Amino acid sequence: MSKILKNYLELPKRLVSICVTLVLVVGCRGEYRTDLDYTHRIQQTWEIKEIEDAFLTQFEQVVFEPDDTISLREQISEALIVEGRDVLELATGTGLLSVLSLRCDAKLVVATDTNPVAVANARYNAAVLAPDRKIDVRQVPAQSEGAFGGIKEMERFDLIICNTPWINGGSTQTLTSGSLEKHFSWMDSLAAGLPDHLNPSGRCLITSRYRPAIEYLRSHCQEMGFSFQVLDDRTIDDLDEAFLPGLLMEIKVPTALLNGSASGATLSE
Asked: 61-257 belongs to which CATH class?
């Protein structure tokens, strides 16, 4: 065995996966993907239970906590809630939930994020982990602070999924009154936009690891006449202020409260 090959085989598993990822993204046929951004540095690769044959890649400047979405990933991969459905993922980050939706036969997947690096990261992971499936990853306009920035008026989906983002970059340990206010404002815009963006019988499944935000969202949804349910063995009142794994919740909007007609989602040109 040559010394070069021996040294390669002794590389840490994660570093090897990065090398393999780079090869896969460019393509075995030497194709250069004009829709991908190759300029970002890789912070880490992750083994994800639901993706047995490859690693998820996290770019630098993209927040990722794998335990946030355990329950939601199980719903996608085991309960097959996305199969044949139009799916929207808000605040996609690395794109993990969107990638799982593609792999589990969602009819259409749209993902959005305010962070341009996250948009590039989601496209990258989709290209590697679901190369034969089409995804529409959209950059939320800088001037838009609401949950549905980047989504067209009355563009509707069967399923809206989200791991609720932190405006300040992700940690409950560094919350300020300003970032908490923005977080609650984002929650307001999420609830307010559901009647415009859910199809009849549509569902919104979200995860959060911050109890005050969950209590706020529950109260707000109930005031608006929406159905709010915890899809978890835990109860909200028993949770610490900040906790892991994230809690999975479902919001449904009664048909009578939906705005306009269900025209269906469309991929952007």
From this structure: alpha beta
Tell me if 240 sits within 8 A of 211, measured CB to CB: yes
Residue with structure tokens 């063995």?
233
- Residue by residue, pLDDT tens for the chain (269 residues) are 444 444 444 445 454 444 444 544 444 334 668 889 889 999 999 999 999 989 999 999 999 999 999 999 999 999 999 999 999 999 999 999 999 999 999 999 999 999 999 999 999 999 999 999 999 999 999 888 799 999 999 899 999 999 998 654 445 555 566 677 788 899 999 999 999 999 999 999 999 999 999 999 999 999 999 999 999 999 999 999 999 999 999 999 999 999 985 444 544 43
Taking a C-beta distance cutoff of 8 angstroms, is the pair 87, 126 a contact?
Answer: no
| C-alpha to C-alpha distance for 93 and 115, rounded to whole angstroms | 8
Q: What is the dihedral of CA 239, 213, 92, 57, to 10 degrees?
A: -40
How far is Cα 190 from Cα 253, in angstroms, rounded to an integer? Answer: 12
Domain map (residue ranges) of the chain: 61-257
